[in-house]
Design a protein that fits this description.
Elements (H helix, E strand, L loop, with lengths): L4 E8 L6 E8 L7 H39 L2 E9 L4 E6 L10 E7 L4 H4 L5 E9 L2 E9 L2
Parallel strand pairs: 5-7
Antiparallel strand pairs: 1-2, 3-4, 3-6, 4-5, 6-7
């Protein structure tokens, strides 16, 4: 017996944490298969509801783990120089795990010029650096007390 089947892709969740979910829909179009078709559609709907609920929960877990990863990716350092004219910070830092770099002293651009006013030479910081438009850039900066 041949049963026509189609597949639809549905967005689950919303915003940046949305997931795409493939939903298989069974379509029976025979007079004799109407009862089986209704049962198949009911089962398909139940599967779709449970899968959607699971995917929505998974999207929340992904968002939470991304936040935890961002916190774990923060590196420690000490400001050696603030160059407001060039928009750069010289930082003596520990390993930058997200960039695969060892501890060293180097110059970084800053994502936001306001970061330059938050720190001075000698300040201890936690920061995240990433490659932005081909340049190593401080994208998050927190002064340690």
């Amino acid at each position: 017996m041949n049963i026509p089947v189609s597949c639809r892709t549905v967005d689950v969740g919303g915003g940046s944490g949305s997931s795409r979910l493939a939903v298989w829909i069974v379509i029976n179009v025979g007079v004799y298969e109407m009862k089986n078709g209704l049962a198949s559609m009911a089962i398909g709907c139940v599967i779709m509801v449970f899968t959607s609920a699971y995917a929505a929960g998974e999207a929340t877990d992904v968002s939470a783990s991304a936040h935890a990863s961002a916190q774990a990716a923060m590196s420690h350092g000490e400001i050696r120089k603030v160059d407001k004219t060039a928009g750069k910070l010289t930082i003596k830092h520990g390993p930058l795990e997200n960039l695969g770099m060892d501890a060293m002293t180097m110059v970084f651009k800053v994502k936001d010029a306001a970061m330059l006013s938050q720190v001075k030479s000698g300040d201890r910081i936690d920061f995240i650096a990433d490659e932005v438009d081909g340049a190593l850039t401080v994208v998050k900066l927190e002064k340690r007390e």
